[in-house]
Amino acid sequence: MPDLQSARLLDFIGKIPVDQDAIDFFSTVPHAKAYLDSSRDLLPVPFYSRSPKVDGADTFFAETIKSRDTIPHALLLLRGAIARLEYKFDDDNGNGAAGSSWQPDTVSLFQLGNKLNGYRDTTHGGLLASLLDEVVGFNVDGLCSCAEAQDGNGQSRNRLYTAYLNTTYRRPVSPGVYAVESRLVRRDGRKWFLQGRIVGAEGAVYTEAEVLYIQSRDSVL
């Protein structure tokens, strides 16, 4: 995740270019292309942690797993209502938007290569957990910006920390193209409860996660 004390994902929309090569690539993959349909209202935004930082941050996503044989293509998509700071929390407690069907707030498309294997032709489970944590973290980041815009309390400038990431592996993930989806379940003060999942072709769910993020007070826990 970006250092949210000094920067937020929404700060970089329009300032850092979106990866057009990634858009072009995923547009050739039918189950990935479906997320790019305008009716989904999922907007391509800068994948902040895929960009190198002068202070040495984000080296895992920007360097270690950014190569031809690891993750050559990645594309981050943010719900338009979040990008426009128009996300509607469904009650005074800031719970997720109304509706019980799975409606992702944030999606990232990944092309997973064969240098991420644990078992042969099987992506390492620790890497899958990292992808879930990253995408859920971006989701919280955008939602915090919406809460700040609505509440005017400046809380989203504080740091966000993963308190837990409870992961369930449903089936092995082979090299290929997958979507990592995230959505808000509810928030309780500084606590943000979310769900994430990794989805492949034909909507098959490979991995799921229950996640708690906590906002710090005054930039410290």
From TrEMBL:
It comes from the Eukaryota. This is Thioesterase-like protein. InterPro entries: HotDog_dom_sf (IPR029069), PTE-AB_protein (IPR052061), Thioestr_dom (IPR006683). It comes from Cordyceps javanica. It holds the Pfam family 4HBT. Residues 122-203 form the Thioesterase domain.
